[in-house]
Fold each of these.
Amino acid sequence: MSVDPDLAEMMSAVFAAHRERHAPTEGLDELWSQLGELGLVRLTGAETSGGSGASWAEAAELLRAAAWHAVSVPVAEHDLLACWLLEAAGLEVGDARRTAALLDESGAAWAVPWAATAERIVVIWPDRAAFRVADVDVTSVRLTAGRNGAGEPRDAVVVDTGALTGTPVPASVVAQWRRRAALVRAIQVCAVLDRILTLTVTHARERIQFGRPLAKFQAVQHLVADIAADAALARAATDAALAEAMRTDWASSRAGQLDFLVAVARSCAGHATSVVVRNAHQVHGAIGTTREHRLHEFTARALAWRSEYGSVQSWDDALTEHATTAGADGLWALITATDSRT
């Protein structure tokens, strides 16, 4: 899943420059315009519909770059979720900034990312055994503004689905949308965990306590080692899920394999967040809790993102379900992605 180093450097430079001028959740319109000029707003969209035709490898790098610099921007919600859903439903995409919302039977959805800042919302709602999709103007829905723990817009949305015709889509499309949304957050969480590790290592080396750097104390070394181990485990699990998704175009032929790997990635990322955030704040001490230090920008994101598109408990439950369904004979094959008959 290698990405052109020049492209990766350009992405990082864009977000770094933005953070020099703006706070994490400010300057969205300016940044969105710049990303659009660079072809990054619809990075994975089909070229025939105005996209850049890139893969999830490039999209993941874009998400990592934004998260690394603590820049809040709805590129995942727009490109990987909303616009992809329109393309999957055979609907026109256009240039409007979008997010997506999975509605319940009453037409409501809670904590929808970036709904209040979007121009249009791609809504999905159940229709008997399948679903329907519609692209609606944000002014036609009822919004209640909200924020997650990182200060990003997470809004309640209520839609009168009875007034919409919608385009029918099979349940498999919505299942893939759920996988994509879940993996997006895993990628973002892993990026901020890596940034927290970097900040913590730097602080431990530079902070002098009792005449020597914090990094010389064995207790601090253990804390940092645990951060590194858990961040690496989460990243490895997420990379494995992403690799399988890209290899199979999000439709693994092995029954349940991709769903299992996504659940592993989300569970690992969720539990790693607990260790990384706790240990990082212990190593930083009081300075890590101040607004002046940047640590909180990343720990707040990790804690907020790990519970979006499924809580840690829900992903743990999903893993339990996969394991019990596979049974003693199929569990090893599920874990190793091999055929138990060979």
Amino acid sequence: MKDKSVKEINAIIDSISTDEYLKYIDILKDDERKSVKNIAIKLAKKLDKIRAENERLELINTFENEGYEKGYTYIGGIDEAGRGPLAGPVVAAVVVFKPGTKIEGINDSKKLSEAKRDELFDIIRDQALDYGIGIVQREEIDKYNILNATYMAMKKAINCLKKTPDYLLVDAAHVPDVSIDQKSIIKGDSKSISIAAASILAKVTRDSIMYEYDKMYPEYGFASHKGYGTDQHYKAIREHGITTIHRRSFLKNIL
């Protein structure tokens, strides 16, 4: 490589596979040129990130793998989005993957940018063996309370599946009146790949709904706060009143 220019070396590095990184790091680190040594350092850092991500992806399959070891064969992860907002629906999702699935970058939806969630939304739907999404609107939230409405959304999501799971991994909850074995996992959306996937499907679906509501009620700013109780949102409520999508049970002090 010593007869290659820095530009030529960069071109070679851009074309190699991950499996070749270590070989080229060993070659480039002994080059006398500082710029070439820096390429080796950057490549080593990139390799470290790849290894760390692979380790994380192995780790977030732990609960699924434990389920398979117990004899379960169709494991679904469940999560929801929208329990806290003053307006809009609560949305739940359930995702079933084949054993050992790895999707780079998948994580708790709250830890991801909107662009990354949107990207993963399509990847998850493409790679999932099965998925379902359940939506419960404002009227039912006010009638049954948000906790029960959340469970209703989760049951709707399960009912959308092509096949009923024999084991459910649930983010910090237990779905009542469901005859499926369950495991509640605190912060499960960052510890289980199927729950993380469900959190992304639920979040992206709900956000898309709130974008549509923003077109209907542009003065409320739903596109920016998604119905949560921000200063902007409370100010709009005081100035314009409540809409048909506002949760009356959440706004008793204002009504």
